[in-house]
Write a structure and sequence with these properties.
Belongs to the UPF0213 family. This protein is an alpha+beta fold. The chain has 4 helices and 3 strands; from the N terminus they run ββααβαα.
Amino acid sequence: MRDHNYFIYILTNRNNTVLYTGVTNNIRRRVTEHKEKLNKGFTFRYKVDKLVYFERFSSIIEAIAREKQIKAGSRQKKLDLINQENPEWIDLFYTNRID
């Protein structure tokens, strides 16, 4: 049986003022799509393409449940998650953490 990876992630813009939470089965591909502005939705409109937080799951059910939990939380809870794991708000896409 093949192992699967699913991710919830939080992106922000250059000034760290807009937060976007998503779920994917391929974080490198999905963040690349955001960075290359391939989808003309929210992240395109608000220039959101900096990966500042993510969590990995082996179950899509768990990943979607966590995404909903994060989206339902306050902005402060999202900020606390990011600050706990990535206090400098570096773009994690350019690190080896997502591989």
